[in-house]
Amino acid sequence: MMTYLIPVLIVGGCGVLAGVLLTVVSRLFYVKVDERVQKISEALPQANCGACGFAGCADYANAIVNEGAETNLCRPGGKDAAESIAEILGVAAAEVVPMTAIVKCSGDCNAVKEEFEFGGLRSCKAVKRYYGGSSSCKYGCIGYGDCVAVCEYDAISVRDGLARVTPLKCVACGKCAAACPNQLIAIKPLAQHTMVLCSSKENGRNTRLACRKGCLGCKLCERNCIEGAIRVEDNHAIINYDLCNDCGLCVETCPAKAIHRV
Amino acid sequence: MKTLIVILLSAMLTDNFVLSKFMGICPFLGVSKKLDSASGMGLAVTFVMICATIVTYPIHHGILVPAHLEYFDTVVFILVIALFVQIVETVLKKTIPSLYKSLGVYLPLITTNCAVLGVTVLNIDNSYGFLQSIVNALGAGLGFMLALVIFSGVRKKLEYADIPETFKGVPATLIAASIVSVSFMGFSGLFG
Questions:
Q1: Whole-angstrom distance, CA of residue B161 vs CA of residue B122
Q2: Chain B stretch 165-184, residues whose beta carbon is closer than 8 A to a beta carbon of chain A
């Protein structure tokens, strides 16, 4: 009898002792956590993308409760996240403008030429360091897909040597924008349709030599825009979205077809 | 002193827990994607291994041996290690929140890590003394960290390599792991 009883007592005693010890320690070292932080953290998509300007979802949840951060900063979560956060806090839901990423280049393989064949790492950053890239346009999309590699939502893909965003899948977290060595990717409101899809800073002649679809900086759009929303800076058109009414007149006037409705 | 150094180096290199004994493979594959998480996990494992040895050694020799319950080693050790890791986590959360933030995420992973249990059981099997056990745990932890850090470097290169579509992801990672493991076999015979 004792041969069985002693082991059971010792091992069982260890277990009970462990339980008691854990209870005591957890009482002794209890950390008070605001339960709203936990709830908000659960309402966030846990993408940890940093688009809100905080170091990850947990940090943002903490900032909302303790530092009074805005409730509508989460881009991947969008409207749903903003609404559930507002509900947890008991405040009115702030307006969320749906955003999407856009590649400001239209130089696919039909428009630009390959100047040399690159045999190194299949990465835009690596090619960029080698004479500014193998494409004839040094400002355009390199097409090796650094942006595709960082996208967690499968929303961007490279077709015909040009990165393209699928707006339906894009949550506008901005990871691709940070990954592009040419800073070609911008985050824009989904409702904004008129876009200059060229970022070349070369003059008209050199742009045309490098790419058949580039902005020549001819200023036709600047002169024709009723709202005065377009300026040509650094040899390419820039739209001021505070003034633009999305009429699409510039799309029709552009001789190089560099302004698109997207 | 000489035996201690031999124990330390053999635990790190010749008997590397991950690459020679194949313990702790899951964190080896799971946490080795980035250098900082690999080194963080390595540090946490080293810390827990040493502390687990300090805790389990007296339990084995003070309670289990006198009661002739050596066969309960595994059960009691699992219990003690889990308890210990949990306590460390709670205490860290209260006292050093910054350390908890960087190490804390790995602690629950370690609770049931076979490498930690393996060290404590091997210490008993090899009938090491207390100091030798601690040195062995330190070596095992450092070896674990070494393997993780080296492999995180390999994986970084692997991400940029142009590998056939079929092998992308887990297959390429496993092949790379096996090659790293083979390279560690070069250390065998180093200490007789």
A1: 39
A2: none
Chain B residues whose beta carbon lies within 8 Å of the beta carbon of residue A122: 160, 162
- Which chain B positions have a beta carbon within 8 Å of A48's beta carbon? none
Residue B192 has pLDDT above 70, yes or no: no
Tens digits of per-residue pLDDT, B150-173? 999 999 888 878 888 888 888 999
Residue B138: inside a domain = yes
CA distances from A225 to A204, A239, A254 (A): 20, 10, 11
Has residue B190 been placed in a domain? no
Tokens of A81: 């996240």
pLDDT digit string, tens, across residues A123-166: 899 888 888 888 889 999 998 989 998 998 889 999 988 999 99
**How near does any CA of chain B get to the CA of A41, in Å?**
16
Q: Inspect the interface and report whether the beta carbons of B162 and A122 lie closer than 8 Å.
A: yes
CA distance A255 to A223: 13
- Specify the pLDDT at position B103: 67
- In total, how many domains does chain B have? 1
Asked if the structure places residue B191 within a domain, the reply is no
CA distance B95 to chain A (A): 8
Q: Supply the range of the domain harboring residue B120.
A: 2-185
B90 part of contact set with chain A, CB < 8 Å: yes
The Cα–Cα gap between A123 and A112 comes to: 19
Q: What chain A residue is nearest to B97 in terms of C-alpha separation?
A: A31
Closest CA to A113 of A184, A201, A215, A211: A211
Q: Which percentage of chain A shows pLDDT scores above 90? A: 14
Q: CB A11 to CB B76 under 8 A?
A: yes
Among A158-167, A231-240, B27-36, the least confident range: B27-36
List A236's β-bridge partners, or say none: A233
Residue-wise pLDDT tens digits, B105-118: 677 777 778 888 89
Q: Which domains occur in chain A, in start order?
A: 35-89 (1.10.15.40), 98-191 (3.30.70.20), 192-262 (3.30.70.20)
**Chain B contact for A25 (CB, 8 A cutoff):** yes
**pLDDT: is B192 or B127 the higher one?**
B127
Q: Which of A214, A4, A217, A247 is nearest to A107 (CA)?
A: A214
pTM summary value: 0.64
